[in-house]
């Protein structure tokens, strides 16, 4: 963020728009060069090997150390948990410290807003500061080397948010690759530090590639035609890698075009070509084993690990700390000739390059070694957490009231009482990759702190408190009162505190039960239930229940934890007390019927508080571990039923209602948008959430967060979750033709801004040129504020389907009330390019591009046109060998692996499936079709060439015999008749088969 008149540019044109560190930006590790384990280590240190000399170039030091390692030692270093090599004074090293929005799983550390919230700031300069703080804290923890220590950080996540139902939506930045690239460059640059040679930390970007679904995530197949892969999915990864902002990638679990991402040849063929330095690639957890087990891609682990290594994997994240399986598999692969020692050397060279840059082998640990644990949760980081949380908040709606102006910002001087109600009013939740909160400022606490003493804040969590009484025996479900709770039993005859539970509704029937006796959640450990959980969480979220209403008004208590599956428990999912009173799980037919006695009516309590207040603030939203998270996609985007009812009841009681949505993904809040005067959205924003919300609600901070993905009105606006072809399916703001609830880039302010007409530095641009787009921006309101000026382009006319609009620049600008500034955004002709499938390269087409400047993708304030002197895509030439995968359109086919090692083919899935090659010039006549196909099925099929449409004129048909194997391709031919002139050429498959290449001659 900049003061007026000095806007900071964030056009993602590497070296031009997004500020990048110098080549090799990084910092050193703090690990001493010598080990403390014994005499052999000290002897190695005294030897003064060249690899220990910081005066030598890194490359020389790496080669010296590599040459001293035995074959066995090299293999041992390829596992996530790299052992020490005492004879050389080398300490152990572990890859993979989670650092998505602060350090996770290491204890208390500064927790910043979820990654989605970081991106919602649209402020790369701020995000770089956050990354720097997280990197500092990683260094601080490293001094104590706790369990889980490591300076190889697994962040950022750049998987695109193409579908808000993705269970890991909060981990990504945006549905747009340009914005994702800008934010990932900023965060990664901060993590690495500013030293030109050394690394503060070594960030690993994840998950490569096209990983946006959790359903069957290790076996689902992301089908990516060439254009969508190049222009969308890979475009999100390239900026941070080509900008030296990260040091490698983590592969994803899924398959990409039929091949597991763990053995994606793009790791070497594509990703390493983007980078200027050596990269260090890792697998996701246990992904190597998936190659043999769930994916059944290789028969043995030796073959699987060999394939991963040669594809570009340098470190195997497998079997937790047990490296024996990986070591055995790679040793076997080497002995059988599946890999060579040079393959080992390549991978070890990559990992050593990172360890040297971390300063591990320098006597003083390098320039970042002196950072101590005092930086963790420091006053500076607390202030940064608050600043980031408030900059991320998005004002969705702020409608004028019948009397006076908009409801927000609230005027503290005129408020005698504020009701802060809702299930998230008094609690801050963390997600799977959050650190432990060092402290928590809840929304109610933030508002109370802002208003000061005097009892001006009232309300409650607005959830029912109930007791559950056995309808047959009269006994109550009873928990414990101590900090550790107690095993749930059914024995009390009256409802005291240990028999009372607060019921939190998270939607789709799922509730959590918090004990009134100790404020701990009821959870399951696989044997018994106990009220000892701080919050719902864990890999298997075992604090979920459903209160199933029966015809007679009683309830069954169903355990709905993520591990309640038939293969684990059979049909035992319901509560029933055993002979000793301990609650166990039984089948539905044997379940106990309970009477739910209401001790406190949450909605009634909220209504009473709202009716008696000047304004009501209702804090609702999601719990990050429930109804969508890693390994579980969402099936509903609506606000939880009970929360929606709460909002309506409070609004009836007090029309001056503000709804704060605290959620990890977009929600279909149509009623709320239509009826509630003011709506505010934030992610789960960490320890300073309450202060940040108060800053915005009372106008101490003028909100300027912007949405980074489309908020849809209905799930009906979305195609199947597994549909990855965003171009064909009209996905994301780029291609979506419907009316969004809130569009990409949306966000309001407490002031107003006027845009002047955009002006170009030149009316035409060459393919290698750049133009500057200038627009005058004026703050026409009475408050200082920020505006995010967004630059979009739209091509008028193209050979290929183009986005309806496409982000190509943005700037968050701070302006004082009544002041103006000129915002200048640079637009490269290269930013206008798209992937030309006819020639397999990017192309800048000649023509006219509409340049749009505005406040969101639909709130365009000014337009102008730019003429591009590029090239015209010529007609298709199909006379040479054409890859079938380079089609223009398709039906009934998918892309598949041509072989296990590399290459893509077209696999027909159904009868009369087809692919088309548009505008092909057949000249005076092609006489012969030659094609390579594989066909597993018995008998023979046909590949028919038609002109104009899938049912158009037949000019040739080839018989395709059975080859018996999907990877066994045979060449077939067919004579062509009448194949001349320019046509759309269709290849139609009679039944399932695979086509690799073809030619028309």
Structure described in brief:
The chain is built from 20 helices and 48 strands. It is α+β, with helices and mostly antiparallel strands.
Architecture blueprint of SSEs:
Layout: H1 39-46, H2 58-68, H3 71-76, E1 81-82, E2 93-98, H4 115-120, H5 124-142, E3 152-157, H6 177-192, E4 202-208, E5 221-222, H7 226-242, E6 249-251, E7 255-256, E8 259-260, H8 266-274, H9 287-292, H10 301-311, H11 324-335, H12 341-357, H13 379-392, E9 394-398, E10 418-421, H14 443-451, E11 457-458, E12 464-470, E13 476-478, E14 489-492, E15 500-505, E16 511-515, E17 521-524, E18 529-533, E19 545-549, E20 555-559, H15 566-569, E21 574-577, E22 583-586, E23 594-600, H16 602-611, E24 615-621, H17 641-653, E25 657-662, H18 670-675, E26 678-682, H19 689-697, H20 732-735, E27 753-755, E28 759-760, E29 764-765, E30 770-779, E31 785-796, E32 806-815, E33 820-828, E34 834-836, E35 841-843, E36 847-854, E37 860-868, E38 882-883, E39 889-891, E40 893-897, E41 904-908, E42 913-921, E43 926-934, E44 940-947, E45 953-961, E46 970-979, E47 982-989, E48 994-1000
Parallel strand pairs: 2-3, 3-4, 4-6, 5-7, 10-11, 10-24, 24-25, 25-26, 29-37
Antiparallel strand pairs: 1-2, 7-8, 9-26, 12-15, 12-23, 13-14, 15-16, 17-18, 19-20, 21-22, 27-30, 28-30, 30-33, 31-32, 31-36, 34-35, 36-37, 38-48, 39-42, 40-41, 41-48, 42-47, 43-46, 43-48, 44-45, 44-47
Keywords: Hydrolase, Signal
Protein name: Glycoside hydrolase family 3 C-terminal domain-containing protein
Pfam family, one: CBM_6
């Amino acid at each position: 963020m900049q003061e007026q008149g000095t806007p900071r540019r964030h056009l993602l044109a590497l070296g031009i728009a997004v500020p990048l560190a110098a080549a090799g930006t990084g910092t050193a590790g703090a690990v001493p060069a010598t080990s403390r384990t014994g005499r052999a280590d000290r002897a190695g240190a005294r030897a003064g090997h060249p690899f220990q000399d910081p005066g030598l170039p890194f490359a020389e030091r790496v080669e010296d150390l590599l040459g001293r390692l035995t074959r066995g030692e090299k293999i041992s270093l390829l596992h996530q948990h790299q052992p020490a090599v005492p004879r050389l004074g080398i300490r152990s090293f572990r890859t993979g410290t989670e650092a998505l929005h602060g350090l996770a799983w290491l204890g208390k550390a500064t927790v910043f807003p979820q990654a989605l919230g970081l991106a919602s700031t649209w402020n790369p300069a701020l995000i770089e500061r956050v990354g720097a703080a997280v990197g500092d804290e990683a260094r601080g923890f490293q001094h104590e080397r706790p369990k889980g220590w490591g300076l190889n950080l697994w962040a950022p996540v750049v998987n695109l948010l193409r579908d808000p139902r993705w269970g890991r939506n909060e981990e990504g930045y945006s549905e747009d690759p340009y914005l994702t690239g800008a934010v990932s460059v900023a965060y990664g640059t901060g993590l690495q530090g500013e030293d030109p040679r050394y690394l503060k930390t070594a960030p690993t970007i994840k998950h490569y590639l096209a990983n946006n679904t959790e359903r069957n995530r290790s076996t689902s197949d992301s089908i990516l035609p060439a254009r969508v892969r190049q222009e969308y999915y890979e475009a999100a990864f390239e900026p941070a890698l080509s900008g030296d902002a990260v040091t490698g990638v983590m592969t994803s679990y899924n398959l990409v075009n039929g091949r597991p991402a763990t053995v994606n040849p793009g790791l070497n063929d594509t990703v390493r070509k983007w980078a200027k330095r050596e990269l260090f690639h890792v697998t996701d957890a246990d992904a190597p084993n998936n190659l043999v087990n769930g994916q059944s891609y290789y028969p043995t682990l030796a073959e699987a690990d060999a394939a991963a290594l040669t594809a570009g994997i340098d470190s195997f994240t497998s079997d937790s700390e047990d490296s024996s399986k990986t070591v055995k598999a790679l040793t076997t692969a080497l002995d059988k000739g599946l890999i060579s020692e040079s393959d080992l050397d390549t991978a070890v060279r990559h990992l050593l390059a990172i360890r040297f840059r971390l300063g591990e082998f320098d006597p003083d640990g390098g320039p970042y070694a002196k950072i101590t644990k005092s930086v963790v949760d420091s006053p500076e980081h607390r202030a940064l957490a608050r600043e980031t949380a408030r900059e991320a908040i998005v004002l969705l709606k702020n409608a004028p009231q019948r009397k006076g102006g908009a409801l927000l910002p609230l005027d503290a001087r005129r408020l005698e009482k504020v009701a802060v109600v809702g299930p998230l009013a008094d609690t801050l939740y963390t997600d799977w990759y959050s650190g432990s909160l060092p402290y928590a400022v809840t929304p109610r606490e933030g508002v109370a702190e802002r208003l000061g003493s005097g009892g001006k804040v009232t309300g409650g969590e607005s959830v029912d408190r109930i007791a559950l009484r056995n309808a047959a025996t009269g006994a109550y479900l009873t928990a414990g009162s101590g900090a550790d709770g107690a095993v749930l039993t059914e024995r009390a005859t009256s409802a005291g505190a240990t028999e009372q539970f607060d019921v939190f509704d998270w939607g789709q029937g799922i509730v959590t039960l918090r004990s009134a006796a100790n404020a701990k959640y009821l959870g399951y450990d696989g044997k018994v239930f106990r009220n000892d959980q701080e919050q719902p969480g864990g890999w298997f979220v075992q604090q979920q229940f459903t209160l199933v209403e029966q015809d007679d008004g009683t309830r069954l208590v169903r355990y709905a934890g993520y591990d309640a599956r038939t293969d684990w428990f059979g049909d035992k999912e319901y509560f029933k007390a055993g002979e000793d009173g301990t609650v166990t799980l039984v089948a539905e037919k044997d379940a106990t019927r309970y009477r739910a006695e209401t001790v406190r009516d949450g909605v009634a309590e909220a209504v009473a508080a709202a009716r008696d207040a000047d304004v009501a603030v209702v804090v609702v939203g999601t719990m990050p571990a429930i109804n969508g998270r890693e390994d579980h996609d969402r099936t509903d985007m609506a606000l939880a039923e009970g929360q929606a009812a709460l909002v309506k009841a409070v609004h009836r009681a007090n029309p001056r209602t503000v709804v704060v949505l605290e959620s990890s993904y977009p929600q279909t809040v149509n009623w709320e948008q239509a009826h509630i005067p003011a709506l505010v959205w934030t992610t789960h924003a960490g320890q300073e959430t309450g202060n940040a919300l108060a800053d915005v609600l009372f106008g101490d901070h003028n909100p300027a967060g912007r949405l980074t993905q489309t908020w849809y009105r209905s799930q009906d606006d979305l195609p199947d979750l597994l549909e990855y072809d965003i171009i064909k399916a009209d996905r994301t703001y780029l291609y979506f033709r419907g009316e969004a609830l809130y569009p990409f880039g949306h966000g309001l302010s407490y002031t107003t801004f006027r845009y002047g007409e955009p002006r170009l530095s030149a009316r035409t641009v060459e393919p290698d040129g750049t133009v500057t787009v200038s627009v005058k921006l004026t703050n026409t309101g009475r408050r200082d504020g920020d505006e995010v000026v967004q630059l979009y382009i739209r091509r008028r006319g193209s050979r290929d389907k183009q986005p309806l609009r496409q982000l190509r620049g943005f700037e968050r600008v701070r302006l004082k009330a009544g002041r103006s500034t000129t915002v200048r955004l640079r637009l490269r002709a290269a930013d206008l390019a798209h992937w030309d499938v006819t020639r397999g390269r990017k192309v800048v087409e000649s023509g006219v591009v509409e340049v749009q400047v505005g406040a969101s993708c639909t709130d365009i304030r000014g337009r102008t046109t730019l003429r591009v002197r590029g090239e015209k895509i010529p007609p298709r030439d199909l006379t040479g060998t054409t890859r079938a995968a380079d089609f223009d359109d398709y039906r009934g086919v998918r892309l598949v692996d041509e072989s296990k090692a590399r290459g893509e083919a077209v696999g027909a899935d159904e009868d009369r499936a087809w692919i088309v090659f548009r505008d092909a010039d057949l000249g005076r006549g092609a006489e012969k079709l030659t094609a390579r196909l594989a066909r597993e099925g018995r008998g023979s099929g046909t590949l028919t060439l038609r002109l104009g449409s899938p049912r158009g004129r037949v000019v040739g048909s080839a018989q395709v015999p059975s080859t018996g194997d999907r990877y066994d391709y045979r060449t077939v031919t067919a004579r062509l008749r009448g194949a001349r002139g320019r046509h759309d050429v269709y290849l139609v498959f009679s039944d399932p088969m695979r086509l690799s290449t073809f030619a028309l001659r």
